[in-house]
Amino acid sequence: MNKKSPVALLATAALAGALSVAGPVHGATHTSTVSSPVSSPGSPILSPAVSSAVAFREARAAAPRVVRESGRRGMCRWSTGYPVFRGAGALTTALRTAVESRREAFLDGATSRFCPEGAWLRIHHEVLAAGDGVVGVRLVTRVDAAGDGTSTRTYWYDGKAGRVGTIRLLRPGSDAALGRLVERGLAGRTGIDRARLAAAFRRPATHLTDVSFTGSGGLRLHFDRGAVAVPPAGAVEVTVGAAQVTPLLSDFGRRARHQSIHAAGVPRT
Q1: What tens digit of pLDDT does each residue of 79-104 get?
Q2: pTM (2 decimals)?
Q3: In this structure, is the dihedral angle defined by the CA atoms of residues 39, 140, 227 and 97, taken in order, positive or negative?
Q4: How many Cβ atoms from other residues are within 10 Å of residue 45's Cβ?
């Protein structure tokens, strides 16, 4: 088993509750779990008078709290979880909205057609980075017994700007250059649809939904089934090397990469 970094240990210890918890789902049995944050030696103690933005910038790896909810409607079950980082209100809103939207879509579908026995929506998260005004979170969505498979999406929060956006990892205007590197990396792969791939980089803010960093500093892009290849080819993943991608990263992207490398081994929750 790999030795976990201090950030990994912090994330493991910090199974905590939400700043706000979504209301009950109509017509469904619903359970919410809110646990207390676990403090760690050396974590900053900040005055309540300090603004949330400043609090976040000053906290290098503040322990997140985690919103966990579960329930069922008929035979359809669901369980979700996402982290809440102190002072990162925009990130909390983005994660909560994504989880609630996916849950409602799942339950709405269950009311309009027979829900297969054992159908279960599960959403969990992985902390990719946390520190120096950066938080990276991946939401992983899986629908068992419903044929929808697994989808992933990353959320990168820039504490200095108070904004969320994966595209913020890249220097403005660099998406075309990244597209060429990705196309080169996918050359020879079975099932790649060049038209879909080109479309993804014409609207990168919409289509580059899962972007993260490798332990060696490369940029890893994950595309869900059908996004850039024919559906039978499944999900597609490609990595652009550190030397190639460095000139394309924004200042925020470089900070995010640094924090990602130091957060290697953070477990999913």
Answers
A1: 999 999 999 999 999 999 999 999 99
A2: 0.77
A3: negative
A4: 6
